[in-house]
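Sample pair:
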Amino acid sequence: MAKVAVIGGGPAGLLAAREICRRELNVHVFEEDSEIGLPERCGGLLSLKGLSMISAPKPMKYVLNLIRGAIFHSPSGYEFKLDAKRWVAAVISRKRFDRMLSEEVEEMGGEISCGVRVRDVRRIGNNFDLNLGEKRFSADWIIDAEGMSSHLMKKILGKSPDKRRWIPIVQLTIEEHGLDPEFVHLYFKEYLPDFFAYLIPLNEEIGRLGVATKLKGLEPRMRKFISEEFPRIKVLKKISYVIYVGRPTWTELNERFIPVGDAAGHVKATTGGGVVMGGLISINMASALSELELGNDPNSYVREARRIYRELKQIFHLRRFIENVPIRLYDKIFKLAEDTSIGDDLRRLGDMDFQATSLKRIIYSPKMIVKLISSVLGNFLK
């Protein structure tokens, strides 16, 4: 028996377990795969600010490359370059990252069981009975970090992330990409309307290339993209998984069953990334339940978790807006961004994680309003 059972040994589950261990409460993590960090299903691009916010393990042996900006490619080949002129993100090995998190949990007294699948959960009064197959386990609280399946969340809470908003993705580790390793590249294609393709460099030669769509024929579309943009690459590795671009869910603390990470849709809908934002919610909800168990006020942690949740909802609405923008207009959008010098504002005020907040700060600034009006009038009068 444990005070808290964490189902899932990915970042969301491990970050939650770490916070519970810090308060010297008993926690047990159950991971269905045989090893923490495997299989690796992630682009691995995280903001340096975000890594700091979740108190990422140090030394940062999991960092493979540092990134200073992004280059956006329209369907016609027009490029918009966003250069922060400083390191803003890290490309990481999720295998190393997750394992270092697990080591922190175990060093602080937490228990981790790999190769153990939680088959079922039953609520019995204020406790939970976990079916582990040949064994059973009892816990007062459950942190559900089981990932996209979230079948336990559906059973216990009667809700789950929107299944229609999961997008299949193929990611290749490739050699000889030939691009500047200090920039991530994003490609918008008419035959990839649901998402974008990307190249995340690990160094001057090796990179992670991803293609995603809900349309049929993902593999042929991937081959078409490669033939257009990277005809000379050598494929070293291939993985397939899914990313979530839907609305996040929220669960109150009094449920005592707290979904976090992918299981709760705590993911940036614009990019499918959830390590930082999902991790922040996980950290705060784990801290809240721990403080409650210790007889303290949990509300400051719940409020902070709600703040991150609201940001994810706003990012979801930003995603819905982007989906309604015809892809043929991307050239004009990138050109407008250059004409209004929005890149300078993004460099100063942009935030990889709090995207909605930073975008509103930029768009609604008096300076930007004047730039936008001047640009539109200038194009109209031409």
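The CA atoms of residues 67 and 182 lie 5 Å apart.
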